[in-house]
């Protein structure tokens, strides 16, 4: 484990960072983090591990990476990334810092990391967490960049909660008006990180921090924490040892903030996570009406109604800890809704599906080269949750999107279905 001297003379360990996922957004976030670990060598190990779901890619003859010796033979994506420092499949044309290591072995990628960034389409997270459970540091902390919700018979949960409870760690959430391709090109944007860790992770007094190992047993103490809904957490957290820099909001700001990527830190993990998930359903509706050629007024109506349903859903199912302002004032809320309804993949796929008269899933396959949209599954999951509670009519927009996706309603019915909203 790399360490640096401290004023007190004791070892000061550095945080090791792993990104779990390497798609369009995963690779963009990896770029940001690797730039910042390089710039902040006092806090972080420079090398950033990026777990890649291994697949083979063919390098076309006209590519600058075409290798005569290899010819048309498909090559492993991890090997291409590590050799050329570019994710040629999911983030083509963007140079990645050389301190990113693409790793196809998930357990090896997370080994010894104190900071785990979860960034992959939500349908894959369950399997990935199963593989790393028991193979991570007990005092690791996570940030979920996943835009989706987890719906089971028991109810709806956030991926931050689900990852945290499943792995026995604290996990916050990052979400914002963040079209990956613009951020990868270093065009200015904002994001919101919700991180509300146990006080023990950042209290500097008394010294040493209460997360220090017991001097007799060497054990690192467990701590009780409050979850995103304000309840006592099911998970007893292990305190971050005091020979690491505090894992506080400042630490995450340093890790994520770039001149082209401005970070706002808040404590409302539920509001940030829900905004990121539900706006994808609204973006599909915006794509449907745009595909019919109804113009900007119709799209604005969809955004207004969608925002109201997002707030209502948050308040109704996640209680008073959810802040309305997260939806109406943060980048994760209204700003993400606007960008997603303007140029997001969910919006674009829904628009093309109406224009061509084919399903959104078919457009996703044809247009996105392996990238995955999240709105279709989220619409279904939210609908099954609402239906089980007899609440579909209280969320006419969410319900209409699911019904259109399943061919039960037509786009032309949207105005009538929204008449009471
Ligand atoms: N792309 C964006 O502009 C953007 C921006 C903000 C947030 N997000 C969110 O970030 C999350 C990740 O999206 P993305 O854009 O990085 O992904 P993506 O759609 O670009 O890529 C798909 C990823 O899934 C991986 N994959 C395919 N099959 C898999 C399997 N069986 N198991 C595990 N992984 C598999 C692929 O390797 C690839 O990395 C999503 O929740 C998305 O909503 C995306
Ligand atoms: O391209 P989408 O629709 O997955 O949206 C991307 C981001 O979430 C926009 O902030």
From TrEMBL:
GO biological process, alphabetically ordered: carbohydrate metabolic process; glycerol-3-phosphate catabolic process
- Keywords of this entry: NAD, Oxidoreductase
**All residue ranges annotated as the Glycerol-3-phosphate dehydrogenase NAD-dependent C-terminal domain in the record:** 268-414
Domain of life assignment: Eukaryota
Q: Which reaction does it catalyse?
A: sn-glycerol 3-phosphate + NAD(+) = dihydroxyacetone phosphate + NADH + H(+)
Which Enzyme Commission number(s) are listed? 1.1.1.8
Q: Disordered: where is this region?
A: 203-239
Q: Which SUPFAM superfamilies match?
A: 6-phosphogluconate dehydrogenase C-terminal domain-like, NAD(P)-binding Rossmann-fold domains
Which molecular-function annotations from GO does this UniProt entry contain?
A: glycerol-3-phosphate dehydrogenase (NAD+) activity; NAD binding
Q: InterPro entries in the record, alphabetically? A: 6-PGluconate_DH-like_C_sf (IPR008927), 6PGD_dom2 (IPR013328), G3P_DH_NAD-dep (IPR006168), G3P_DH_NAD-dep_C (IPR006109), G3P_DH_NAD-dep_N (IPR011128), NAD(P)-bd_dom_sf (IPR036291)
Looking at the record, the residues that make up the Glycerol-3-phosphate dehydrogenase NAD-dependent N-terminal domain are: 16-198
According to its UniProt record, what is one Pfam family this protein matches? NAD_Gly3P_dh_C
**EC category name:** oxidoreductase
GO CC terms on record? Answer: cytosol; nucleus
Family per UniProt? Belongs to the NAD-dependent glycerol-3-phosphate dehydrogenase family.
Check the record and name the PANTHER family matching this protein.
GLYCEROL-3-PHOSPHATE DEHYDROGENASE, GLYCEROL-3-PHOSPHATE DEHYDROGENASE [NAD(+)]-RELATED
This chain belongs to the protein called Glycerol-3-phosphate dehydrogenase [NAD(+)]
């Amino acid at each position: 484990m790399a360490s640096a001297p401290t004023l007190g003379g004791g070892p000061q360990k550095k945080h090791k960072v792993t990104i779990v996922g390497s798609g369009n957004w995963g690779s963009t976030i990896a770029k940001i983090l690797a730039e910042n670990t390089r710039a902040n060598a006092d806090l972080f190990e420079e090398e950033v591990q990026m777990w890649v779901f291994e697949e083979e890619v063919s390098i076309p003859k006209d590519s600058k990476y075409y290798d005569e010796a290899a010819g048309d033979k498909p090559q492993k994506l991890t090997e291409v990334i590590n050799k050329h420092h570019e994710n040629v499949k999911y983030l083509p044309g963007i140079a990645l810092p050389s301190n990113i290591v693409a790793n196809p072995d998930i357990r090896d990628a997370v080994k010894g990391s104190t900071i785990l960034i979860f960034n992959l389409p939500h349908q894959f997270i369950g399997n990935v967490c199963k593989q790393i459970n028991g193979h991570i540091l007990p005092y690791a902390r996570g940030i979920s960049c996943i835009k989706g919700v987890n719906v089971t018979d028991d109810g709806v949960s956030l991926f931050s909660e689900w990852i945290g409870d499943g792995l026995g760690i604290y996990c916050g959430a990052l979400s914002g008006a963040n079209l990956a391709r613009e951020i990868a090109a270093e065009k200015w944007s904002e994001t919101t990180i919700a991180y509300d860790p146990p006080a023990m992770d950042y209290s500097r007094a008394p010294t040493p921090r209460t997360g220090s190992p017991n001097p007799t047993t060497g054990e690192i103490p467990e701590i009780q924490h409050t979850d995103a809904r304000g309840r006592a957490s099911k998970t007893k957290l292990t305190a971050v040892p005091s020979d690491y820099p505090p894992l506080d909001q400042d630490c995450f700001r340093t890790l994520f903030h770039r001149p082209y990527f401005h970070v706002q830190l808040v404590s409302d993990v539920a509001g940030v996570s829900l905004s990121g998930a539900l706006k994808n359903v609204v973006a599909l509706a915006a794509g449907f009406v745009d595909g019919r050629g109804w113009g900007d007024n119709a799209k604005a109506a969809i955004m207004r109604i969608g925002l109201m349903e997002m707030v209502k859903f948050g308040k109704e199912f996640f209680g008073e800890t959810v802040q309305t302002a997260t939806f109406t004032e943060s980048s994760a809320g209204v700003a993400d809704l606007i960008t997603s309804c303007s140029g997001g993949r969910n919006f674009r796929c829904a628009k093309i599906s109406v224009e061509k008269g084919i399903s959104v899933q078919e457009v996703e396959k044809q247009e996105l080269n392996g990238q995955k949209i999240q709105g279709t599954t989220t619409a279904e999951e939210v609908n099954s949750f609402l239906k089980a509670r007899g609440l579909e009519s209280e969320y006419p927009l969410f319900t209409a999107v699911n019904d259109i996706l399943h061919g039960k309603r037509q786009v032309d019915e949207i105005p009538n279905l929204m008449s009471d909203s």
